[in-house]
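>> received
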Amino acid sequence: MKTLAKMFLALTALAATSTWADGKFDVGVGFEQFRWREYDSAGTQLLEEKGPRFVMHGHYEDWQPSGAVFGGQADLYFGSVDYDGQTQSGTPVQTDTDYSGVRLEGGGGYLWPVGNHGIGIIGSVGFDSWIRSLQDSRTSTGTFVYGYDEDWYTFYARLAAAWNYRDSVWQHRLRAGLKYPFYTENRVPDFGVTLEPKAGTSYFINWETHWTISPTVALGVALYHEYTRYKESDPEPSYVGLVYQPESRQWVSGARFQMSF
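>> returned
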């Protein structure tokens, strides 16, 4: 986590020194409601994780109402969520799962002017990496179950319909579109295996609004929702025999408060 924090702070410091006249750099904090479900090949739910996570955010984007726009963002997120699932033999088990991760994304596009509004298309690519740490627990019959860690790495692309609005006081931004996690790895050191879940079509929506309080500073709020689907991986040999990553679906809904300068 210290390494992730250093990466985030370094990116924040670099972007904060930017002299791009038409851009805004945001820093913010917030919470997101996280939910993760896994399904077997017949579509039966195997487990669910859900709970809040804390988020630190840094973002630069050109706020021009029209023309070519570009930007990038970095997020740190972490939290402990409830796990409700089962063992390999199907015995129900409940525990906690700790998450910590970093997400980096950058891209650009073009907006066509309509008064103070800009409407267009924006594309981006990103990298999301997190540690999923399942804690030790006991089944309902008292059997001890060891926890283990999973190291996830995913590269994705996004394509969004975009809308910007800007006047002397308010700036608004809306992004909505498709996400495609084109390459994903789940490394499980305790099992000696790396699994590669296949890409599933996903979607997202993001709304931000800012209120200018001085010539160089604005306060804002962001609301967002994202759904990501990872299809079942191929089975791979491990220390415990053949294993695979079941189809996994992730929902994240969040809100954060931020300052722009």
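>> Confidence is low (pLDDT under 50) at residues 10-21.
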